[in-house]
Amino acid sequence: MAENQRIVLAARPQGMPDESHLKLESAPMPEPADGQVLLRTIYLSLDPYMRGRMSAAKSYAQSVEVGSVMEGGTVCEVVESHSPDWQAGDLALAHTGWQAYAAVNPKGLKRLNPDDAPISTAVGVLGMPGFTAYVGMVEHGRPQKGETVVVSAASGAVGQVVGQLAQHWGCRAVGVAGGPDKCRFVTESMGFDACVDHRSPTFEQDLAAACPNGVDIYWENVGGKVQAAVLPLLNEFARIPVCGLIAHYNETGAPDGPDKLSGFMRHILTKRLTVRGFIQFDHADRRGEFFKTVAPLVKSGELKYRNDVVQGLENAVSAFQGLLTGKNFGKLLVQVGDDPTQ
Amino acid sequence: MAENQRIVLAARPQGMPDESHLKLESAPMPEPADGQVLLRTIYLSLDPYMRGRMSAAKSYAQSVEVGSVMEGGTVCEVVESHSPDWQAGDLALAHTGWQAYAAVNPKGLKRLNPDDAPISTAVGVLGMPGFTAYVGMVEHGRPQKGETVVVSAASGAVGQVVGQLAQHWGCRAVGVAGGPDKCRFVTESMGFDACVDHRSPTFEQDLAAACPNGVDIYWENVGGKVQAAVLPLLNEFARIPVCGLIAHYNETGAPDGPDKLSGFMRHILTKRLTVRGFIQFDHADRRGEFFKTVAPLVKSGELKYRNDVVQGLENAVSAFQGLLTGKNFGKLLVQVGDDPTQ
C-alpha cells in the first residue's frame, strides 16, 4: 500500500483522447485527515459525459483542470476511517475518479448494502445511468400506452434501461445499435420488441419497417445518422429527450455540409415536436421515487442489465475510446480493485 | 357584379412563387345555394404559412390543390343571404381565400361588430396572428417576470404582439428586424425595450449588447442567421417556441454546409433547452381566454399594432413575395374591396 495509481488529464484532447491526454501515473498514497475516510476503488464507471469534462468548452458542469485526476463515479471500500460513521470494510458509492485510492470527506458518500443488489449496479442500472433513463422518460418522454419508442445506443448503460421501462409502461420499444451481436442482445437478452443495426446498408428501411405506426418518442443518445433516419418517421407531437450526442463528442468544429439544421427545424415546426435537453442532476428530487420504482424491477428480474467490465485502471483509456466508438457492450466499468462481495 | 376575380394555384413553386404559380383569373360569380351566403371580400390576410400550402410536401395541413383558389383568412361582407342567421350588410371573419367573392355555408363564419374593434383586427392582432403570439407564449414560452425575450421578425404580425405581451408579463422584450426603419418602429411605436437590425454588420455584437442577462425565451419566426446569433446567448433552461421559419420557406433542398445541426443539438443538451414547434389551431380551446386577455389591451391602447395594407387583389402576389423577403411592415393585408366601416 505504498503508492496510489491515478489517471490525470495531462492535456485537453482535440478529437479522440488518448494516453497523451490521459496519463497514468503513480502518486503518494493519500492520507485521510481527521473526519475523512480512505477509499479503495473497486469499480470506476466510464460514461460518455466524461468527454465533455476533458474539454474547456462551456457546458453544464465545470471542466476537469489540466493536471487533475479525471473525475468519475466509483464503487469503493473503506480501508481506513477517521469518521465515526464509517468503518473499514464498509462499501460506498463515491465520486473519486480515475484512481485506485482517495481520501475524502464522507459527507457525499452513499452506503451500499450488497444484499440489496450487486454493488456494481450503484453506478449502473440503479445509479446515474438508470436514473437518467427513468427521469428522462417520466419528465420528458412522457410515454403513453401503445406508443412507439426508438432508443439509440440501445445496448448501452442508459439505452438498455430506457427500452425496458418503455415496455413496462406499455410501449413498443425499438432499439438501434451497432452490429448484429448487439442487436441480438437487445432483443433476446433485454427483450426489446425490435432492434435495428445502424451499420446495415438498409438501416433506414429496416428502421421504418420496425416502426409501422411511426415514432412517438425518440431517445437521443447519439445524433448523426441515427437521428436523421428517425426524423421522417416521427409522428405529430413526438418528443425527443436529448440525453447525449455521442456521435459528435469528438468533433472539433461544424462538420461538412449540407446543412441539415433547417430540415430539422421544419420537422419540429410542422409536426409540433418537443426537443428537450436534460441532465439527470437537475431532477435529484426524483431519485427516491426512481429507486422505489426500479429497484424492485431489477430484483425481480423484470428489468435486465448487462455490465461490460474491463480489468485494471491501466486499461481505462482504451476502454473509454471504445465507449466513444461504440465498442462497449452494456454498462462500461473498470474493475480497479478486488470486489470483496464476489 | 358580373364576374368574380380570384387567384388560383396554377403550379407548385420551387423557390419563390410568382405569377406563373399564382394566377389571377376571372370566373363566374358564385351563386349561393339554399342555406348559404354570398360573401364579398374586404380584406385578405397574407401570412407566411401560405407558402407551405403551395407545396406538396407533407405538413400539418393539406396542400392547396393545383387549380384551386389559394386559401386564406378574410374579412367579408354578406351581400346575399339564403340563411336565416345572416343578412346582407353583416360583417364576418371567413376563410374564403384569394378571391373577391365566395358562396359558403355560414357555419364557419364569425360575426364581427365594428364597434368592438376595427374589422381588420379580426385577421390581425385579435385574429390568428395575435392568438398565435398569445398561445405560443403562455403554452410554450412560459415567461417569468424579469426574463429576456428575443423576438425575431419583431415588426411582423405575430412578432409585434409577442414582444408587447412579454412586456405586459414583466419581461424585457428585444426585437430583431430588418433595417433601421423597422427597428425604430419596433422600439418607438411598439415600445420594445430594444430592437436589433439583422442586416447590420455588427448584428451579433448588437444582439449580445441588447441582452446583458442572456436570453430566456427565443421566439423563432425565421431560423437562419438570427437563430445562429441567439444560440450562444441562451441561458440554461431557455425555451424556443418555433412558430415559423421564414428564412427557409423557399429552400428547395438542404443548404450548403457546414452542417450546423450538431452544434444546435449541443446547445440543446448542455443548456437543457426546450425547443417546441406549435400551430395555433392545436390550442383552439384557449381562444376565449385569449380574446378576454388581449381585446381589452388593444381597446385601451396598451397593446399597439400596425397593419400594412396593399390595395387590390392584383397586387397580392407581389405583396406575398415581399412578405417572404421581409418587405412588409406590420400585419400584411390586401384590401380586395371597399371597407364599409371606414
Helix content of chain A: 25-40%
Oligomer: homodimer
Can you tell me the residue ranges of chain A where pLDDT is under 50 for at least 5 consecutive residues? none
CATH homologous superfamily placement of the largest domain in chain A = NAD(P)-binding Rossmann-like Domain
Number of domains of chain A: 2
CATH topology of the largest domain in chain A: Rossmann fold
Tell how many strands the DSSP assignment of chain A holds: 15
Alpha plus pi helix count of chain A: 9
Largest interface: A-B, 44 and 44 residues
Looking at the overall shape, the CATH architecture of the largest domain in chain A is 3-Layer(aba) Sandwich
Strand-pairing-aware structural class of chain A:
alpha/beta
Largest sheet of chain A: 7 strands, mixed
Shape of chain A: globular
Helix and strand pattern of chain A: EEEHEEEEHEHEHEHEHEHEHEHE
- Round the mean pLDDT of chain A to the nearest integer and report it: 95
Q: Indicate the CATH class of the largest domain in chain A.
A: Alpha Beta
| Strand composition percent of chain A | 15-25%
Distance between the termini of chain A: 22 Å
Rg from Cα of chain A: 20 Å
Pfam family, one (chains A, B): ADH_zinc_N
Domain Enoyl reductase (ER) (chains A, B): 15-334
Protein name (chains A, B): Enoyl reductase (ER) domain-containing protein
GO molecular function (chains A, B): oxidoreductase activity, acting on the CH-CH group of donors, NAD or NADP as acceptor
